Amino acid sequence: MPINYQTHSKYHKKSSPAKRPGRGKAGFRRNRKAPKPIKIKPGSDAKLKKIFASIGVPDKSPFKPDSFQVKAVNAVKHADTLVTAPTGSGKTWIAEKAITRTLKDGGKTWYATPLKALTNSIYSNFSNIFGPEQVGILTGDRKENPDAPVIVGTTEILRNHLYDAMHEGTDLPVDLVVLDEAHFLGDPERGVVWEEIMIYLPPRIPLLMLSATIGNANQIASWLSSIREKECVVIEESKRPVSLYPLFFHPSGTLFPLTVQDEKKNKARLYKKTLSYIQSKRPPLLSRGRKLPPMDEIIGVLRKYNLLPALFFLKSRIDCDNAVNLCTEEGLLSDPGRKDHLNKRIEELVSHSPHIKRHRQRWHLEHLAVGSHHSGQLPAWKIVVENLMAEGLLDAVFATSTVAAGVNFPARSVVILNSDRFNGADFMPLTSTEFHQMTGRAGRRGMDKVGFAVTLPGKFMDLRLIAKLINSPASDVHSQIRINFSMVLNLLLSHTPDQIKELLDKSFASFLLAKKRRNAVVPGFINDVSGQLWKDFQRRLNFLKEHDYVSKDDTLTDDGIWASKLRIDQPLMVAEGFRLGIFPETDPALLAAIMSSFVNERETDDDKISKDLIPKKLVSSFLHIKKMLRPFAKNMFTQGFSVNPICLEPAVTIFSWAADMPWEKVVQNSGLAEGDLARLILRTSDNLRHIRNLSHIFPEAAETSKKSIDLLNKEPVVSFYS
Question: What structural domains does the chain harbor?
Fold first, then answer.
């Protein structure tokens, strides 16, 4: 089921919609009867006349790099370089020039990104620039031309290559590493991977980091300089390539400035008419309660004032899809030439996939030039929408805020409906970094003279906060390093515990705490600040010794060595299963199903599975595995380690797909959104790839895993690769 902020209780443990604030700063009180929405009629405040007159396409001129781009290209020649600049300012151009120079010198480049979608996009772009024979891609799902001089891949793959190089005692065969979206260093879930790369990367390899604006860029550079013993140059650019103008969409349909510049105080303040709306006791509404506003009428207002194309940021996946359905035939494309061009392009993009040819939103793309984009959709469909928007063929896309990071979605305007964001546990106010990433999509370089951020009033919109965020500095990035069993096993391949302690002392977390305490003369402060990491490492080391993955002399046993290659969600549980010989090593569909139970994707409820859907051999195998692993899992839990339950529901779904049940039927039976199902399949395939790599230890299981992967990776899951 798609995550909906109205009905996502099983994803939302710490808070619920009922606990969410009952009134936005520009909302209404619950104890009063809400006023009815008023009829929308396009209008604009007189103060906007000048800015609207400036809308248009800049004059064509030869490309001239900005000074920050030139400085960055020069800096990479002699130092590590951290570039922080607004979204859309041309950071990738810097990487292109650095890669060109590396290629000219006969060197190799590794370009790492956080997202597979972004990796695919960069790979396609670089193939056009440098030639397809010069570029390879590594994402786990996809491995093409791996010996090419330019490799584009995910950060996890690069981190794994560093593990392997340290184990083999070899130098990573790379002459430049580019870390795109480097602010992911502060991502709670995956930031540890960025930090590991920065710590493990040999100092001889120049590091180019590209990031959205970071509040503590100099702090990060100081840390890197200290652990890599070479200069790290910070190149900062705060100026947007296209200026941003914030607007307020009054429920009447009239557009107002959101803020104006206070010359006396040299800062922005709310426009008087916008402030008047906020201060109203019963302000008019665009919609009632949690209902979406009339998207077709809003688009109509934006069209009248030449503010399209627009990217709408909505709260949930279901809201994105519902917003598309609110676009009515009143918005039908009237230009036959444009409609014909759009339809031909759509046909080209969907031609390789019979399934997405029949997508339920295709009509909206073809006739209304609107679409939605979110993680509940198939990757193939998202790429269709991304391409159409990037080519300027759509009027509007409705997306969740996750699209702000990494996906190329240029628009003249972004439309923001909420000033908070669900972070997986709670509704939290937007941070300045999140806000700037969203508004960074407004205004297309070379296509717009000005971009617009349009705010809609509503129950969960705090207009004062939005006004404050416009000129707020970027948020700081904090260390997210943590110890896990996979990290311990892989570091023990090539390091002693004492050497690992030295690596932990190099963490960004240790650096930050040490800096705070430096003014107070406290002997041994490094031991204090890295103490918790060291304790976490020792706890896991002792557990691995107890179960014979590590010997008494702190080296990996034979089992520890092959278990280190299981760089997956639950490496020890899977390794223990192989030790016990309980996995179905000769049945590809059954092995795929069992491996899906070890994917940490979402909570499930096995009690809701229809018994008619469960093959006897699957339930028999699953129950046997669960019984045999229970003592090990219990031991992990009692020693304070998190243990994710292995569930039957994903296994039933994966078995059905591997057994050639039609896609539509698998979706229906599983209750999953198509994108969630595709992600479960791809992550299961990733687990199987790690088993395939153990051919020297478990040859039969490795051979079966190859067949399992072939059963899973078929249309429409992988059609976007063809």
Answer: 9-56+242-331+372-470 (3.40.50.300), 67-236 (3.40.50.300), 485-721 (1.10.3380.30)
The residue written with tokens 């009815």 in the block is 36
- State the CB neighbour count (10 A cutoff) for residue 14: 9
Helix and strand totals (H; E) in the chain: 29, 20
Contact (CB, 8 A) for 546 and 662: no
Task: Work out whether strand 427-429 and strand 420-422 pair parallel, antiparallel, or are unpaired.
Answer: antiparallel
What single-letter amino acid sits at 256?
Answer: F
Choose between 90 and 289: higher pLDDT: 90
Distance between CA atoms of residues 513 and 405, nearest Å: 29
Helix (H, G, I), strand (E, B) or coil at 311: strand
Report pTM.
0.89
660 vs 609 pLDDT, higher one: 660
Element (H or E) spanning 525, and its range?
helix 525-529
Q: How far is CA 356 from CA 186, 325, 361, 671, in A?
A: 36, 18, 10, 19
- Distance in angstroms (rounded) separating the CA atoms of residues 23 and 550: 56
Q: Do residues 162 and 201 touch, judged by C-beta distance below 8 A?
A: yes
**What are the tokens at 714?**
């078929």
Contacts of 277 (CB under 8 A, 6+ apart): 26, 248, 250, 283, 457
Q: What is the pLDDT of residue 33?
A: 60
- Supply the DSSP symbol for 54: T
Judged against a pLDDT cut of 60, whether residue 340 lies above it is answered with yes
**609-612 contact pairs (CB < 8 A, 24+):** 609/648, 609/649, 609/652, 610/669
DSSP 442: B
Query: Which two three-digit tokens encode residue 197?
Result: 């790369």
| 233, β-bridge pairs | 81
- Main-chain phi, psi angles of 43, to 5 degrees: -165, 165
Q: Judge if the upstream peptide bond of residue 662 is cis by omega within 30 degrees of 0.
A: no
- Residue 509 to residue 227: CA distance in whole angstroms: 13
Query: Which residue's structure tokens are 């990060």?
Result: 220
Q: Of 100, 88, 252, which is closest to residue 178 (Cα–Cα)?
A: 100
Please state, for a pLDDT cut of 90, what percent of the chain lies above it. Answer: 73
Asked if residues 217 and 84 have their Cβ atoms less than 8 Å apart, the reply is yes
Which structure tokens are listed for 264?
A: 């006396």
Among 32-36, 407-411, 580-584, 627-631, which stretch is predicted with the lowest mean pLDDT? 32-36
Rounded to 5°, angle at Cα 374 from 482 and 450: 100
Predicted local distance difference test score (pLDDT) of residue 628? 98
Contact 278, 250 (CB under 8 A): no
Task: Identify the DSSP state of 480.
Answer: -
- The mean per-residue pLDDT over the stretch 374-381 comes to 92
Cα-based angle 163, 500, 641 (whole degrees, multiple of 5): 85
Sign of CA dihedral 458, 460, 465, 470: negative
